[in-house]
Design brief:
226 residues; alpha/beta; 7-stranded mixed beta sheet; 4-stranded mixed beta sheet; globular
Length: 226
């Protein structure tokens, strides 16, 4: 698979993986836009990395920077490590096998299928898989990871919780790419409009990149970093 000047290879043992890699789930324009924002020294948090279609291409754009890929589903995390190691030197990436939210502790993941590349897993009060959960701000202030320059967020409706978890450190982020889900946001007690308002209230200017009936992507640029 090639995007611009970068080529990445991905394992595809299942039909789900094959379709995800070859179609990029309709997100080729989003990845192309993301890559134009990546600078060689950036730290990028890929939150909800799945099997690494975004992560691998981001890593290809880095020199001294790093991409941290957050993926709490063990099967996807294993494939993510495989794909990253096949495409990038170990110095450029790390997999964090837990979820980000607005609290530290533990939670449960609702698992939607057991095949590599399944992308509908989500934090749930009655999920079947127990996982660790952290605030982004906690990870930064405890020096577990460097502060990110870019966030890419795809967390099946829990976007506002992830953003709130960065606290005051959200102002340090230069640009954010988020997939917003109309119905799934409601399940977390919020809405896509509220998430956009939260970002604007924190100094971000928003551009909509695409539009589907169920979801859409936005690029949020921190006006303080112009």
């Amino acid at each position: 698979m090639s995007i611009g000047d970068h080529t990445a290879t991905f394992a595809t043992d299942t039909r789900t993986e094959y379709q995800r890699v070859n179609s990029l789930v309709g997100e080729l324009p989003v990845i192309e836009a993301l890559l134009t924002d990546v600078r060689e020294s950036d730290v990028v948090f890929d939150i909800g990395a799945n099997i690494g279609t975004h992560t691998c291409f981001v890593g290809k754009s880095l020199e001294s920077g790093r991409v941290i890929a957050f993926e709490p589903m063990p099967m996807n995390a294993a494939r993510l490590r495989h794909n990253l190691s096949a495409n990038l030197p170990a110095s450029k990436w790390e997999v964090a096998e837990f979820a980000l939210s607005n609290e530290d502790g533990s939670g449960t993941l609702a698992v939607k299928g057991q095949r590599y590349g399944e992308g509908k897993h989500s934090l749930s009060s009655d999920g079947e898989l127990k996982i660790d959960v952290f605030r982004g701000e906690t990870l930064i202030e405890e020096d577990r990871y460097p502060a990110p320059d870019i966030l890419k967020i795809d967390v099946e409706g829990a976007e506002l919780q992830v953003l709130k978890g960065f606290g005051e450190r959200l102002s340090d982020v230069r640009v954010i790419y988020v997939e917003l889900h109309h119905d799934l946001s409601v399940e977390y007690g919020t809405s896509t409009a509220e998430i956009e308002t939260y970002l604007r209230d924190h100094g971000f200017e928003i551009d909509r990149l695409n539009d589907r009936t169920d979801a859409y992507h936005i690029r949020a640029l921190n006006s303080a970093h112009d």
